[in-house]
Structures are given as structure tokens and as C-alpha cells.
Amino acid sequence: MFNDDLTEYSEKSENLKKKVRKLAKLIQNSKHCVIHTGAGISTSAGIPDFRGPNGVWTCRDQGRKRPRRTCRKSKPTYAHMSISKLIEKGYVKYLVSQNCDGLHVKSGVPLDKISELHGNTNKESCKDCKKDYWRPYRCRNSKKCHDHRTGRLCDECGGELHDTIINYNENLNETQLNRAYQNSEKSDLSIVCGTSLKVTPSSSLPVITVKNETGKLVICNLQKTPKDKYASLRIFSKTDLIFELLMKELDLTPDEYVDPLENENENENENKNKNKKNTKKEKEKEKEKEKSSQTKNKKKTNNKEKTKTKTKKKSKTNTKIKK
């Protein structure tokens, strides 16, 4: 039973290289390659998967403490950046992802080249005018499962904004799903990366390719999947390692990820530090002014007292002379 088998397998080094060479040739000969990704592609970014040995659902079913999912500070992995480069160079025509961590969009994948079937943690939208908002933070605020209101309002129409995360028993976004189906039907090569292919309808999309006469399916995952029997090439390995070998075969180098928010944060921190320094200097100047004014006031009071005592002495001497 696939539900119970959590075993992870790894190809031997030489065997892995041979399989990746085959994968590279399939990509080079493909006219419409589609990649399908799941949670396994993001584990090296510090985001736990669902059905791995230490996955979220595995830990829940075994009564263990579930790992925390932290997407906010996570950065795209080598595999994410490689997929972005393959799309940029035209090797891959479309990307279908079950992930809502936002790392594919962060890696530079154009929005018209991706279907995020389960939403994006950084995206919220207005239900009234349909305007989308991209945030540098997690949009979801409500602790209730099916309450998607974020508490923010639309700048255009004033409508309530909702996060785009799809929970269980909720309908997928029609536009995202339709685009995924259209590209899967066009596809002559589907590459599955980091998913157990157990969640519908996303698990059925890669198999559509095989229904085409010349279509081929490649599955890259550490665990076995229910769709392995349809695969013309099956690779058991971590996705980052597969893409490291693949990019060498294709003579490509993925871009290094640069977080635009980091630069903004650095500038903000610099400005904050400058402001702190300025405020310190201003405070020091104010203190110096206060001290100087205090000393001046003391001198004035002392001078006044001296003049008073002098006048008193003079008046005494005058009275003595009169006598």
C-alpha cells in the first residue's frame, strides 16, 4: 500500500548520472515540457513536506509533534532557481505547483507560466473587483480554517481582501486549474518533482501527457508513487541533486537568488541607524546646551549675589561716615 510505505530510496551515483543524461535529452527534444512540483522541492529551504518520514501528515498520524511550516524567511532552492532558468531559456513551457510557499514566484517564474493550484501565501485578492495584491509577508491572518479574510481592504473598491490559500474540501481556483489542464494536454513531456502524487486533481495532470501517443512522463521523488507505472523514466533522488546534474548536462547555470526585500531592509536599517545616531547627537547637543545654560545661570546668580553684598557693604560704610 502506498499510504503506508514511507521508505525513501536513493539512486547510486553512476546510475543517477545516466538517468539525468536521459532526462536532459528528453528535455532537449521536447516541444512542450511541463514540470509538476510538490512539497519535496522545498524541504531544503526549511519547509517540511507532508508525506515524508518526518512530514506534517506523517507526524500527525503517528502522534508526533508536527514540524512548523515557516515560509516567510525561506528562500528558493537550487531546484527552484534551475526551473526558473529552464523556463527563461524556453526548455520548459509551463509549471504546475501544489505548493503555496511562494518560492517559485520568488525565483522569478513569470505569473503567466505557472499555476499555483493551492494558492500563494504572499498573495491576497479582492473578491469584488478581483484585484490581486502581492505582499512581502504571509497574508493569512484568521485561525479559522475556512475564513480567508485578511482584515485588509482593497485600495480600488474598498472590498474585503482574502488570502488565496486552498484548504481541504475547498474548490481550486478555476483559472489556475484550467491553465494547468490546457498545458498538460499540450505537453509531450511531464516532469514530476517532489510529490507523492496522492492529492487530486493535481495527481492526475501529469498522466494526461502519457495519453498522447508520443508523450512521456518522468517522476523524480524519493518515495514510490501510485503513478510510477506510467513513467518512462523514474529517478529516486533529492531534487536539488537532480537539478545540479541536469544543469551541467544542459550547460546552464541558475541565477543566484537575490531577495529584493533584503536590500530594502538593509536601507531601512541604515536609515534607522543614521536616525539613531542623529538623535543621539541631537540629545547630546541639547544636554550640552542645558549644561551651558545652567552654568550661565549660575554665574548670573553668583554675580547678582556679589553685587548685592557689595552694595550692602557700601551702604554700611556710608552710614558710618555720616555719624
UniProtKB/TrEMBL annotation:
A molecular-function term among this protein's GO annotations: NAD+ binding
Binding residues annotated for Zn(2+), in chain numbering = 126, 129, 154, 157
Q: Where is the composition biased (Basic and acidic residues)?
A: 281-293
Q: Where is the composition biased (Acidic residues)?
A: 258-268
Q: Mind listing the UniProt keywords for this protein, alphabetically?
A: Metal-binding, NAD, Transferase, Zinc
Q: Where is the active site?
A: 118
Q: Where is the composition biased (Basic residues)?
A: 309-323
In Swiss-Prot or TrEMBL terms, this protein is called protein acetyllysine N-acetyltransferase
Q: Which species is the source of this protein? A: Anaeramoeba flamelloides
